[in-house]
Amino acid sequence: MKRLSIPVSKMSGCMEIKTPANGSVTIRLVCRDRPVTVFGRHIGMDLVCIQLSGIDVIFGMNWLIFNRVHINCCEKTVVFPKPEENLHLMSKKEVVESLKEPVEVYAFFASLKLKGEVKMEELPVVCEFPDVFPEDVSDVPPKREVEFTIDLVPGTSPISMAPYRMSASELNELKKQLEELLEKKFIRPSVSPWGAPVLLVMKKEGSMRLCIDYRQLNKVVGFLYD
């Protein structure tokens, strides 16, 4: 250690090591956090000082386990794991695009399985505020102190768009949803000169969602920024 100018410190206790050559040896000296290079990999470790000739360093089981080193006695090889690389998470669109070319893919899917099913009425916050979480919303909210208005760009004329063409099945679905909304008083017949077309968009489960196309109206809305 002195010849290599490596600092040596004493352990708080002592360590007894059994060697095949010298039997049991009591160790009290250690070189803390010394840099060691193994096959291009730079590793810091604590080196315990042992009087052995012809051997520079012995890697113990604790070091092999900590660094996940694989020893193959049949092939007479020692395999070090590759350093961790940054993972790139791909979106669904990127995966679909990459699969258009001949590639090999190893994929796994993780899922979360819940034990039991939580019912809405069993949640504490729902039980505490039943008026906020009714079973069904059958009417519009009450009038507020401040009525909501939409400011338009000055000089804007009323915009009324023609309805989109729909198939017979879509017209039946539209009629069904409009009657339901009228019954719940969510909508009412309008005589306004303004008009926006509606369209039906299919949800994941197969039902149809009623959407209103406000794109032309949004072009003439005056936005106020604080």
TrEMBL record:
PANTHER family: LDOC1 RELATED, RNA-DIRECTED DNA POLYMERASE HOMOLOG. This is Cellular nucleic acid-binding protein. It comes from Trifolium pratense (Red clover). It holds the Pfam family RVP_2. It comes from the Eukaryota.
